[in-house]
């Protein structure tokens, strides 16, 4: 069709202008054909297909309206854009019809399109009233009717050929309800136009408001044809109501008039809130500026459309085309309705392309005489899937997510806007998934949920309207109140005698009126007394509550208790008082029975016993911790037992004077003093209470006692307690008494059941509290308290009243009201009545305190025992009997600084303790028991090990004696003629009496050690050692063999009493140390090199390292080496029999250095090998010359070490100093001494090793790298080598 038009245009043009130019006719036709070919090529490049099947589509719009013109342009652009993308087999041909704002015109246009044009589908009409009839026509002829009408009354579910291409207006109901809820409004007034469009929203809006506990207090219906006066009259009517929140659902034509009238009625000022529906909000840009000025501060909701770049580009194109097609119109904005129309036409075009165009398009009915115009049209022959494709589709369009499901376009999010200035501003968003939010991302992600932006409300204020005001007229709430004589503190009703006005006062009335003031809306009410004609009470509280059910009252206020049977007739609010039913009984005054044992009553017997047990236990723990280190906790047995009790009990008055030394003791005392402080404070407080406070006890302690004793019980008139007494407490109804005031309660309880009154009163807690506040010195409340629901109001405004009661109870206002009517309970220390006598404190009150004390003491004791056992582990690991281990541990524990605290008592009992006696009795005591045959050494395999150790230590010491004699010439080894006469050295006690060594029993030979040539020797005192070959000297073998053979008795002449001897010039040559796990024996050999002058023996405690006895001195300056040897042999044997084992000699390293270089024979045991194997060059040469058996004399070895210098060590710098010493065959100590002598304070092994590692890394880096990295590594390698050479050069310069 487009090509034909172009052909005619070019033909007329060419004939008009070409004929005067005398161009031939055939040339003109040829030129026209070429032009047509070009046009066809252009059309093909734009996507148009000249052979495409034409699909006629009818479009019914109000073309005289702005919205209709916008839709026409959007539909035309949608068709052009769709077919310009590519070539299709079909093409929509639009047929526009004007509905002229008339339903009849819209129906006539639809019939014309179906009958004459035979369209496949109809888009429109716009308005719901127009679309209603057209939809019925579409269902009849089976042609899809696609309309943007929003009325919920038009249902796609009921009309299978109806497709709603816009959001249904019912979808905005939840968004409007969310706004009402967000600002806490509880009532709204809905104003809507009297049309199908207007009334369709009401059911959904009412339901949405009910879900948030809000009400539609009034519905205002405005006719579209109403005059301004009628609208103004309706506004004045709404102004007289208390609600100030209005929801307006109108089309723009009526809304402009309405808001102008609202401003005239002064309803657009501060305190009012207005909300408009989505259609009006979406079309605000069509409203004139005067109406916008009147609508300042109005909130509205409308469909949210994402502002994408595609929408902005389309808006520019649409603007150009719309202005070109409608040059007479003012500037108009594109809205969401136009975008929905664009996307709908796109869906329609795709559906047409999918199903094609049927031929013939309609099936005609059989011709008859009575056919109407609609029947004559027939039915559409379009594929049945055509309507399904339109009613169910989903894609991303200009309007966002365009989703039509079951013929209905599904809503997504609403935009909340506020009318401000000349237009609108966005203040938030709402979606069904996320609710109200301040911002909304493209993927509906919520930002700041529950908040809205700043809103300027009507009257140019930022204060949120509270939603209600006190109305000038309205119905008042009828509130029923009880009439009663007593308990006027809760409620009191009076009438004015002049005007008969009702005045209600009391605690319940103040609470109710305070709640009403806090309501989110104004509530007018009036009090109506529940009374008879003569002014008496109209019945009990059950009857009063029933009046609400009988619609006599709207609410009930008073001291009405919430119980189950009453809730059957009325809904109660949340209780505003404490709940419960309690019992009040008289008290009996007891005289204080002050007896001699009153001081024992503050604590129970179990608590007294527990305290005593903890005193003893704590004293025992402190004694254990301090016994070994504190003299105050030592002495005789009875003295120590007395200290256990004295020390712990003295902490009661903090009178203990003994100073503790152990940190564990201090820890125990800190906890115990705190426990004592708490106990004494609690005891003092309770005793004071018993002696000073009034001792008051109830006459009845339990409810069962009232029943058993047949006591009468009183309760308040009209209360539900009577049924409670019979059902829950099992009282006989004949025992009930009814009273109506507090004074009646007091009088009845004072007289008691014997005088015809009551022994107890049962009532609810609020009344009991009030009663006890006045008579707390005479009565008290007994337990249990039976739970009830408390006082409540019966009100139709249940949710709001309950909410305000909760707020009131959390506020200080409830406390103020309570103090005003129920008092402060002055003069009463307890709200339950009289103070009951102070009871004895029980063990449960201090269970945690004793637990702390017990754990602290026990833990300290466990820690001490663990340390003690560890220090004496040698006793525990020995093979002795369990009894002997316990005895040994006890003996160790009983010693302080090594002193036997029980020695005197033990000697008197003849226990035969073994040990070393005091210095006055010589070195060994006669009580040591050498005449007995009891073995003192460990049994089993350990026996061999200990014998080996003894032999090892003895032989080492023998070698020391021999080696020390070689250090000086023979003339220096002569014994001195006379000892020097100088004072005894400090710390050494001289012997005062002679002591003889006991005879030693024979011992089994375990390690017989013989030289290669076994001989018997008899050594005299003048025998000297061979200085050339030590190991061939007979003295060594004699020493080694005599330890395992029979030892002759020794006549120790050197043990005679000594004169004072000066030890200042001698040195300690050797220390021989033995231990049995308890004590430690240390024998020090004194003298100068080559001469042994004397020996000192000391006995020490293993745990404290303190000396237990004075030292003993043995004089050797007149004795020969053989005599000293015999003394040492016998000393070792005595130590072995006593169970002592030798320990390492601290001077062994020094003497090892002196013995270095000796070559022992192959059969020398390991414990006699003093020096390492000879591996040096010098020693190797000597060995080679001698055939491997050459022995290097000591003098030669000393000479070698004396000649060594630092240069001899250079080649060994790269080795650790121990390994270097082994290579040189010298002692590391000697090597260090030589280094220090030459100024080398630090062996350079670590320094050299560090540089060598760096050299190795650099060499590896050279192999793996190239270029600059390799050059850098070479440079570093060179620096490291120079650094290594400098280290060696530093010691060789």
From TrEMBL:
Residues 1248-1290 form a coiled coil. GO terms for molecular function: DNA binding; ligand-gated monoatomic ion channel activity. GO terms for cellular component: membrane. Residues 905-937, 971-991 are annotated as: Disordered. Keywords: Coiled coil, DNA-binding, Glycoprotein, Ion channel, Ion transport, Ligand-gated ion channel, Membrane, Nucleus, Receptor, Signal, Transcription, Transcription regulation, Transmembrane, Transmembrane helix, Transport. Residues 1191-1271 form the RWP-RK domain. It is found in: Membrane. It is a multi-pass membrane protein. Residues 917-935 have a biased composition (Polar residues). The chain crosses the membrane at residues 603-625, 667-692. The keyword Magnesium does not apply. PROSITE patterns: RWP_RK. Belongs to the glutamate-gated ion channel (TC 1.A.10.1) family. Glutamate-gated receptor that probably acts as a non-selective cation channel. May be involved in light-signal transduction and calcium homeostasis via the regulation of calcium influx into cells. May form heteromers. This is RWP-RK domain-containing protein.
């Amino acid at each position: 069709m487009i090509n034909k038009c172009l052909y005619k245009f070019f033909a007329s043009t060419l004939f008009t202008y070409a004929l005067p130019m005398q161009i031939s006719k055939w040339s003109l036709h040829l030129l026209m054909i070429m032009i047509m070919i070009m046009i066809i090529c252009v059309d093909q490049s734009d996507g148009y297909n000249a052979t495409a099947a034409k699909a006629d589509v009818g479009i019914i719009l109000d073309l005289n309206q702005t919205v209709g013109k916008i839709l026409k342009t959007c539909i035309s652009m949608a068709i052009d854009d769709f077919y310009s993308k590519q070539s299709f087999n079909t093409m929509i041909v639009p047929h526009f019809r004007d509905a002229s704002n008339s339903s009849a015109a819209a129906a006539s246009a639809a019939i014309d399109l179906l009958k004459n044009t035979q369209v496949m589908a109809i888009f429109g009409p716009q308005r719901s009233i127009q679309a209603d009839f057209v939809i019925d026509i579409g269902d009849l002829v089976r042609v899809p009717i696609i309309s943007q009408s929003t009325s919920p009354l038009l249902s796609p579910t009921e009309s299978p050929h109806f497709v709603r291409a816009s959001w249904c207006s019912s979808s905005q109901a939840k968004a409007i309800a969310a706004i009402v809820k967000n600002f806490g409004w509880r009532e709204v007034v809905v104003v809507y136009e009297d049309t199908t469009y207007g009334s369709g929203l009401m059911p959904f809006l009412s339901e949405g408001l009910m879900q948030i506990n809000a009400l539609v207090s009034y519905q205002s219906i405005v006719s579209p044809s109403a005059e301004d006066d009628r609208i103004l009259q309706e506004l004045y009517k709404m102004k007289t109501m208390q609600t100030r929140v209005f929801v307006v659902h109108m089309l723009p034509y009526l809304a402009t008039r309405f808001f102008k009238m609202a401003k005239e009625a002064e309803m657009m000022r501060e305190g009012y809130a207005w909300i408009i529906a989505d259609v009006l909000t979406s079309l605000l840009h069509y409203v004139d500026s005067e109406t916008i000025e009147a609508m300042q501060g109005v909130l509205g909701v409308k469909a949210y459309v994402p502002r994408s770049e595609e929408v902005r580009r389309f808006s520019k194109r649409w603007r150009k085309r719309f202005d070109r097609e409608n040059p007479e119109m003012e500037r108009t904005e594109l809205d969401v309705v136009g975008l929905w129309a664009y996307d709908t036409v796109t869906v329609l075009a795709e559906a047409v392309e999918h199903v094609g165009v049927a031929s013939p398009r309609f099936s005609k009915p059989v011709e008859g005489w009575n056919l109407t115009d609609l029947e004559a049209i027939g039915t559409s022959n379009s594929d049945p899937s055509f309507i399904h494709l339109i009613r169910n589709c989903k894609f991303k369009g200009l309007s966002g997510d365009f989703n039509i499901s079951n013929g209905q376009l599904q809503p997504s999010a609403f935009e909340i806007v506020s009318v401000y200035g000349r237009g609108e501003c966005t203040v938030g968003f709402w979606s069904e998934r996320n609710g109200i939010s301040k911002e909304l991302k493209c993927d509906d992600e919520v930002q700041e949920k529950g908040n809205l932006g700043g809103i300027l409300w009507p009257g140019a204020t930022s204060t949120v309207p509270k939603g209600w005001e006190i109305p000038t007229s309205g119905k008042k709430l009828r509130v029923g109140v009880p009439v009663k004589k007593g308990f006027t503190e809760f409620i009191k009703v009076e009438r004015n005698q002049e005007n008969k006005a009702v005045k209600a006062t009391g605690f319940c009335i103040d609470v109710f009126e305070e709640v009403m003031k806090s309501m989110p809306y104004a509530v007018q009410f009036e009090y109506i007394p529940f009374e008879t004609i003569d002014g008496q009470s109209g019945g009990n509280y059950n009857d009063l509550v029933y009046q609400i059910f009988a619609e006599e009252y709207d609410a009930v206020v008073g001291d009405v208790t919430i119980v189950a049977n009453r809730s059957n007739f009325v809904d109660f609010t949340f209780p505003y008082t404490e709940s419960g039913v309690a019992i009040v009984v008289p008290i009996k005054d007891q005289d204080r029975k002050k007896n001699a044992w009153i001081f024992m009553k503050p604590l129970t017997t179990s608590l007294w016993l527990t305290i005593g047990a903890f005193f003893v236990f704590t004293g025992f723990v402190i004694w254990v911790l301090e016994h070994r280190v504190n003299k105050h906790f030592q002495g005789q047995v009875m003295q120590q037992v007395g200290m256990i009790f004295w020390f712990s009990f003295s902490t009661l008055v903090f009178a203990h004077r003994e100073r503790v030394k152990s940190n564990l003791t201090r820890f125990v005392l800190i906890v115990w003093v705190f426990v004592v402080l708490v106990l004494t404070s609690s005891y003092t407080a309770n005793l004071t209470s018993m002696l000073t406070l009034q001792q008051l006890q109830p006459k009845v302690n339990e409810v069962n006692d009232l029943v058993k004793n047949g006591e009468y019980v009183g309760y308040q008139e009209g209360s539900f307690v009577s049924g409670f007494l019979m059902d829950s407490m099992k009282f006989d109804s004949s025992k009930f008494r009814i009273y109506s005031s507090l004074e009646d309660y007091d009088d009845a309880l004072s007289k008691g059941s014997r005088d015809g009154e009551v022994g107890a009163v049962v009532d609810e807690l609020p009344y009991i509290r009030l009663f006890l506040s006045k008579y707390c010195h005479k009565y008290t409340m007994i337990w249990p308290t039976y739970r009830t629901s408390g006082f409540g109001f019966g009100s139709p405004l249940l949710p709001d009243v309950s909410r305000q009661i909760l707020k009131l109870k959390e506020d200080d206002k409830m406390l103020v009201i309570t103090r005003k009517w129920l008092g402060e309970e002055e003069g009463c220390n307890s709200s339950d009545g009289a103070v009951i006598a102070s009871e004895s404190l029980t063990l449960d009150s201090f269970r945690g305190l004793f637990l702390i004390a017990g754990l602290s003491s026990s833990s300290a004791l466990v820690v001490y025992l663990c340390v003690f056992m560890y220090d004496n582990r040698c006793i525990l690991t020995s093979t002795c009997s369990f009894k002997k281990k316990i005895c040994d541990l006890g003996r160790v524990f009983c010693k302080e600084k090594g002193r036997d605290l029980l020695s005197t008592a033990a000697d008197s009992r003849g226990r035969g303790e073994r040990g070393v006696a005091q210095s006055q009795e010589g070195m060994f005591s006669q009580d040591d028991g050498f005449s007995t045959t009891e073995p003192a050494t460990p049994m089993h395999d350990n026996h061999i090990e200990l014998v080996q150790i003894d032999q090892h230590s003895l032989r080492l010491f023998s070698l020391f004696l021999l080696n020390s004699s070689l250090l000086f010439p023979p003339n220096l080894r002569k014994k001195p003629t006379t000892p020097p006469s100088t004072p005894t050295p400090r710390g050494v006690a001289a012997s005062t009496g002679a002591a003889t060594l006991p005879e030693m029993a024979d011992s089994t030979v375990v390690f017989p050690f013989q030289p290669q040539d076994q001989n018997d020797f008899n050594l005299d005192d003048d025998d000297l050692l061979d200085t050339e070959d030590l190991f061939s000297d007979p003295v060594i073998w004699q020493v080694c063999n005599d330890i395992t053979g029979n030892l002759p008795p020794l006549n120790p002449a050197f043990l005679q009493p000594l004169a004072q001897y000066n030890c200042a010039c001698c040195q300690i040559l050797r220390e021989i140390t033995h231990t049995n796990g308890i004590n430690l024996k240390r024998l020090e050999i004194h003298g100068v090199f080559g001469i042994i002058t004397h020996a000192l023996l000391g006995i020490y405690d293993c745990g404290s390292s303190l000396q237990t006895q004075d030292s003993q001195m043995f004089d050797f300056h007149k004795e020969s080496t053989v005599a000293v040897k015999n003394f040492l042999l016998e000393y070792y044997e005595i130590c072995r029999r006593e169970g002592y084992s030798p320990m390492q000699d601290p001077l062994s390293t020094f003497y090892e250095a002196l013995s270095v270089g000796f070559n022992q024979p192959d059969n020398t045991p390991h414990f006699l090998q003093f020096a390492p194997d000879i591996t040096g060059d010098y020693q190797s040469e000597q060995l080679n010359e001698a055939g491997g058996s050459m022995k290097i004399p000591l003098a030669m070895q000393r000479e070698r070490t004396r000649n060594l210098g630092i240069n001899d060590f250079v080649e060994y710098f790269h080795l650790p100093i121990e390994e270097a010493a082994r290579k040189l065959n010298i002692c590391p100590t000697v090597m260090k001494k030589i280094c220090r002598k030459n100024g080398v304070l630090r062996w350079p092994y670590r320094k050299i090793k560090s540089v060598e590692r760096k050299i190795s890394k650099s060499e590896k880096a050279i192999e793996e790298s190239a270029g600059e990295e390799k050059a850098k590594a070479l440079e570093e390698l060179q620096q490291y080598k120079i650094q290594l050479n400098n280290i060696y050069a530093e010691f060789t310069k």
